[in-house]
Each structure stands twice: as structure tokens, then as C-alpha cells.
Amino acid sequence: MLDEAARSETRVWFETLRDRICRSLELLEDAFAGEDAASLSPGRFAYERWERAGGGGGVMGTMRGRVFEKVGVNVSTVMGSFTPEFAKSIPGAATDGAFWASGISLVAHPRSPHVPPVHMNTRHIQTTKAWFGGGADLNPIRPDAEDTAAFHAALERACAPHGAESYPRFKAWADEYFFLPHRNEHRGVGGIFFDYLEDDFARDFRLVQDVGMAFLDVYPKIVVRHMDRPWTAEDRAYQLERRGRYVEFNLLYDRGTQFGLKTGGNTEAILMSLPPVVSWP
């Protein structure tokens, strides 16, 4: 395992990124000028601290406003021991099951069907090994070519200093990971996904930081492009149907959901990713 200074450095970064992202999303709430601007109040994040019985805890931040029907930004730092069965699936944990993990997780479900939902997560985990993982993906209700290009370009720029092969590799990994096999379709328009980066702590940590800052830069710009556009009842109905794909993926396949539930995390924080209203045909 790494020393305490390295743990502190990663934890502080995830908390700092959380603060920057939350402030940026609150500014979008203030800037909203759509049809409901006068009747809806700008959203603000509410924070709830929680403690894990086995060690550590986190802060769940949620906001419901006029741009975001529901957005959650969670940070957690937890430690303890995996169950013997779960430890078998975690690198370096089979010996004694001990672990330490810190990370940030964000899921946004905008009110407007024109504004794409998004997910971003980065984390650092230590057992007898230590590695980084995470990613970001865009999940539009109806894909927009300009949004897709901008989102991927931002992630490609973030990956560029870390090797020419990084972005193509992480993009392909996301295409494979964010996939619903029971429907034979992708969850959205992709992004990047990576896990088990353990070659060099400083270099891998810089990648995680660059990905976080790229997300902070590009997603608000995408939101601004669409947040004031009007929509129809048909748009809303289709939005609620597409949200069902997000629910299916997160409950059936998402690694973060499984990790949180199997390590005694805060259930409400873990399921924060689920949309507030959804429908199936």
C-alpha cells in the first residue's frame, strides 16, 4: 500500500474537484433563461455526511433545480476489509481482504430532454496493490453530433499527454463497458473508461486530474447550448423511456454500484445515480 501522504493527496483532490463541479453547475442554474425561469428557483446543492460502520464515510451532494431535475456529486473515502468471497475479485485483496478507497462520482439527469445526461467517476483503490480507475460518458436522449464531438475531443485532449495510445484504448474500453448486452445497444455515445492503472502513481494521478478538469470544462458548455430550448410532451415521454436504459445498466452491470453495495457503503449515495422519474413502454 502507499503511504498516508499519497492517500491524503488523492482524497483532497476528489473533494476539491467536487467543490469546483458543484459551483459550476449552480452557476448554470442561475443562468437559466428558459420558459420556466420565472416559476422555478435556481437549484443549490444540499450535502449530507455519512459514516461507514466498517471505517470511513463520505458526503452525498444532491441538487434539484430548473436545469437539473436531479444531479448528484458524491465523494467518499472508505477502508476496512472485503468479505472473503468479494476479495477474490479484487486485485491484491485475496491475502487479507484489507482495502482503502477514495473517489468522486457524478451523475446528472437534466430537466430538458435536449440537455444530455452525463456520468463521471474517478477513484483510487489500495489493497496490497494500488491503482486508479474511472471514466466519463455522455448519455443524450437524442444524440447531437456537435455535443458528441466536443465531449470526445475534450477527453482526447486530457489523455494526450499520457501517451498516444491512451485515448483510443480508453474509448474502446468505454464502448465495451457502457453496453447493455440484453438490449444489444450502447448506453449513450460513449466517452472513456479505465481501470487498474498502477504503473506509476504520479503519472496515473495526473491523468485522473486531467480527466476531471476536462469534464469540468466541456460539460457546462454542452449544457449551455441546449438548456433554454423549449421541448414538447413527446420529447418528455421519450426522455423518460431512455432514462430506463440508465437504470438497467446501473443496477445490472455498473462496477461502482456493485463495489459500494458489497462494501457496506451508503445505499442512498450509491443509488443516487438513478433518475428521479423514469418509464418503460
TrEMBL record:
Annotated site location: Important for dimerization: H182
Residues holding a divalent metal cation: H109, H119, H152, H182
GO biological process, alphabetically ordered: protoporphyrinogen IX biosynthetic process
An example Gene Ontology CC term for this record: cytoplasm
Keywords: Cytoplasm, Heme biosynthesis, Metal-binding, Oxidoreductase, Porphyrin biosynthesis
Positions bound to substrate: S105, N121, T122, R123, G264, G265, N266
Catalytic activity annotation: coproporphyrinogen III + O2 + 2 H(+) = protoporphyrinogen IX + 2 CO2 + 2 H2O
Gene Ontology MF term list: coproporphyrinogen oxidase activity; metal ion binding; protein homodimerization activity
EC category: oxidoreductase
Pathway: Porphyrin-containing compound metabolism; protoporphyrin-IX biosynthesis; protoporphyrinogen-IX from coproporphyrinogen-III (O2 route): step 1/1
EC numbers, comma separated: 1.3.3.3
SUPFAM superfamilies: Coproporphyrinogen III oxidase (SSF102886)
InterPro entries with a match to the protein in the record: Coprogen_oxidase_aer, Coprogen_oxidase_aer_sf, Coprogen_oxidase_CS
Superkingdom classification of source: Bacteria
Principal cellular location given in the protein's record: cytoplasm
UniProt keyword Heme, yes or no: no
Positions of region (Important for dimerization): 246-281
Active site: H119 (proton donor)
Cofactor(s) listed: a divalent metal cation
Cell location: Cytoplasm
Annotated transmembrane regions: none
Listed HAMAP family: Coprogen_oxidas (MF_00333)
Subunit comment: Homodimer.
Annotated family: Belongs to the aerobic coproporphyrinogen-III oxidase family.
Protein name: Oxygen-dependent coproporphyrinogen-III oxidase
